[in-house]
Amino acid sequence: MSNKDYWWAKWLLLTILVMTINKSIAGGAKMDNALANVRLESSHLDDGAYVNADPQVKQDMSKLGGIIKRFIFEKRIDPVPIKMPLSQIDIKALDEHSKDAVYRLGHSSMLLKLNNQIWLTDPVFSERASPVQWMGPKRFHAVPLELEGIKTIKGVVISHDHYDHLDKSTIQLLKDRVEYFIVPLGVDKHLLDWGVPKEKIHVLDWWQEITIDEIKFVATPAQHFSGRGVFDGNETLWASWVIKTSQHSLFFSGDSGYFDGFKLIGERYGPFDLTMMETGAYDKDWADIHMLPEQSVQAHLDLNGRVLMPIHNGTFDLALHPWYEPFARLSKAATSHNIEIATPIMGEKVLFNQSRVNQRWWAGISQVVNELRLPRPDQS
């Protein structure tokens, strides 16, 4: 075993250990009786745990041994980029610009400028997506946003409670300047434990809606799981989100495997001007809860989307595939279906009426020749 492989194995095993005991060191929440009563109102609760629409799709520990073995012995190709391009967001221009726009902040963290309001999705601004900051997946790039310059953020939308989507330090940094937090069932307990005032939090089950200052938010199904410890029992819900203004309609996938729920969401709430679709951290051992790039394209078609923006990539190394592969594979699949994609560099503004939003910025910054014949950045 090489020294590099040794450190990968050590990181994975330590992460499992830390997640197992994270309730005491990272502020994870256990459900109290009052919250349990709220959870029982959901129709997709089974024996005290949330379940997917397809009850056969479950996340358990049965494949853990094989996953650890693969992380130790499989050859890694370009696990991190040499240097990520970055566009620092101009706070003054953000405040003055009245047109609706979206900005990628990294991974699944998005800044949405809608109706002259600022909304964030799954904000993770810490150095690592981990229960602790001394180990775990480290970000490839800085956050392209100086939060100190933003006085008021209208709201934060959370898809689920995994560490790469719900970050305690970020929530505590934001809680005094955010007016609203919109979360799936059970996630409110984490926020309350971290000091977010109860009156700021709105909790939704799948298919429930809330309208805030003429922007509608709908919690829609996803095929995933939840928990902030290895042995958590899906005590909080996971969701995708429909976001609608009078001018624009957006879809934010959160994390999900491919399932027929996308078609149902498209029938009920489509078409969408922009779909922000999970495309990254996929693998054959967890394909039912993280889409392959080609499935992300199919989900976009099911949703009746116009422009597809791949997210959940380009910030943390969370799987065995090369960091650039999600972009290359999705770009190829989208081209075959004549789908317009938006692949801005982190921090770049994307307008809804902008036609040229596809940049192949990942091409040419791969470190190592792909010896396993996966798509190179310049061959998609």
From TrEMBL:
Point out the signal peptide segment: none
Gene Ontology annotations for the cellular component aspect, listed alphabetically: cytoplasm
A Pfam family found in this protein is: Lactamase_B_2
Domain of life where this protein originates? Bacteria
Q: Which SUPFAM superfamilies match?
A: Metallo-hydrolase/oxidoreductase (SSF56281)
Which InterPro entries does the record associate with it? Answer: Metallo-B-lactamas, RibonucZ/Hydroxyglut_hydro
- Metallo-beta-lactamase domain segment(s): 120-312
Protein name stated in the entry: N-acyl-phosphatidylethanolamine-hydrolyzing phospholipase D
User: Which organism is this entry from?
Assistant: Paraglaciecola arctica BSs20135
